[in-house]
Amino acid sequence: MADLSSRNPDWWRQAVIYQVYPRSFADADGDGLGDLKGITQRLDHLGALGVDALWLSPFYPSELADGGYDVADHRDVDPRLGSLDDFDALVAEAHRLGLKVVVDLVPNHTSHQHPWFQEALRAGPGSAARERYVFRPGRGTRGELPPSDWQSVFGGSAWHRVADGEWYLHLFAAQQPDLNWDNEEVRADFRTTLRFWSDRGVDGFRVDVAHGLAKELTEPLRDIGGIGASGETALLRVPPGDHPYWDRDEVHEIYRDWRKVFDAYRPPRSAVAEAWVPGPRRALYARPDELGQAFNFEYLEAAWSAEELRRVITEELATARAAGAAATWVLSNHDVVRHHSRLMLPPGTDPGAWLLSGGHAPAVDREAGLRRGRAATLLMLALPGASYLYQGEELGLPEVADLPTEVLQDPIWEQTGHVRKGRDGCRVPLPWTADGASYGFGPGGAWLPQPPDFAAYAVAAQSGVEGSTLELYRTALRLRRKLLDGESLIWSTDSPEDVLDFSRCEGWRCVANLGTAAVAMPDGEVLLSSGPLPGDGKLPADTTVWLG
C-alpha cells in the first residue's frame, strides 16, 4: 500500500488533493465571503472525506479583479479572509488531522495595487521600478498604438496605457500587470515568498500560469499574428518554445532555481504546474529537478468516450513516466464548468455558449449528469497518480448556469463585452445544511446566490445516507487507501468497445461502461459501484465498478 504519511517525501505522487476556493467554502464572520476561520472550522469534513491534502486557492490581499488571482501582497492574508495568525491556525489544524496544505502561488503577475506597481507608476519611464514589470512605449506617430498585437486571455489587447504614455503588459485583466522575470529582483522576491510559506508549514505549491513567466522581450516585440492568445491550440501553431509569451524554454531555468528552495526542506516541498501546453512539453515542467508534477488538462477536456479516454490515460501515464513524475487527474476546478453538468453536454457543444444560454440550450438532465459524473469520478480515482478534487464535487453539485447577469463577478463578463459569462457558476458558495440564509455557508447570506435546490445537495442532507454522492466519495477514498500500490495499470484486451477495463495491484480491477447499453460484467467481488447494479450480472450504462 502506498505510504502517504508525513514522513514520506513522495506523499504527493498518489495523493488525493482537495481544492478549496476560500471565498466560497465557509464563512465564519457572516459577511457573505468565505474566510480562513470558516475553512478551519470545516476541516473535519475533509478529514471525514478521506483526502490527503487541501489546496488553497488565493487568500492573499486582493481587490478581486480576478477572483483573488490579482495579488497585492504575496506574503500576507486578505484582511476580509483573516490574518496570518488565522492561516497558522488553519495549517496546524490541518496537520493535526493528517492533511497536507498546498497553497496557490501566482508568479506571472501582481495586482495593480501591489506596492511595486504603484512605485513603478510614480517613478516613470526608464526607472528601475518599471523594470520589474513589462513597460514599453507605444507604436504609431504619438505612441498611441499598443507595442504589439499580443492579446489578453480575458479578451482585447494585452497592453494598457498609463498617464505618461507608456504601456504595460497584462496577459490577463488590466488590473494584473505582468512581472518581468528577466529581472533578478523579481526572482529573488519569489524565492523569499517560497521560503515564507514553507517556513509556516506549507507542504506544497500549485503554480498558477506556470507556462507564462518567460517572455521574448527583445525589441522590436514580435507580433503573434493569427496564432491566438492562449491555450494549446496557439502553441501548436509555432515551433516548440517559440511563442513570444507562452511556454518558452527559458521558463525552466526559473523552476530549477525553485527546486533548490523546495529541496532545502525536510520533507522537500512539492509543486504542481498549471501549464496549458501539449503533453510532451508539459513533461518538462514535471521533471524531478523542476516542479515534479503538472496538471493533465487533456483528461478534463476529453469527451465521454472510451476510445478517447483510453488514449488520454495511456499518453498521460507514458508522459509522466518519461519525466520521472506521477500522473495527475482532474475533472473540475475553479475555472471550468462542473463535470456533473459538463459531461452531459452533447459533443461539440461550446460550454461558453451553454452558460450564456443560462444552461437551457441544450438543457441538461441533472440526474443523468450526476450518474455520469459519479462514474467518471470512480474511474479517475482508480487511475495511478494524484487525483485533484474540486470543492463541492463530492456533493454532486451541478454548474449554476443560470446566475443573473447582474450578480456576476468574473471580469471575463465585462472584458468580453458580455460575450462570455465567465466562471462564477462553479464558484457559488457550498451548501452545508438544508436550511438557513445560506444553507450553512455562514450566519448571513452568500456573495453569489445559491439556487434553492442546493438544499438537497447539502452535506447534512447526504451524510450517512446510503447511496448518496458524499458517501460514494467517502467509501471510494477509504477503499483507495487500502488498494493503492504501484503506479501502473494493465488494460484488458477483450473488453467491449465502449468499456474501459483495467487492473491495478493485488487484483483490483476497474470497469467503466461509457456506452448506452448494459454490458456483461467480469467476474469478481464488487467492492464499489458508482450506481445501482441490477443483479443480473450486467453493468449499466454510465456506471463504473471496482472489483476485487
TrEMBL record:
Query: Which residues does UniProt call coiled coil?
Result: none
A molecular function GO annotation: alpha-amylase activity
What this protein is called in its record is: Alpha-amylase
List the InterPro entries hit by this protein, alphabetically. GH (IPR017853), GH13_cat_dom (IPR006047), O16G_dom_2 (IPR045857)
Q: Does the keyword Isomerase apply?
A: no
Q: Which source organism?
A: Streptomyces griseofuscus
Task: Provide the family line.
Answer: Belongs to the glycosyl hydrolase 13 family.
Sorted alphabetically, which Pfam families does this protein's record hold? Alpha-amylase (PF00128)
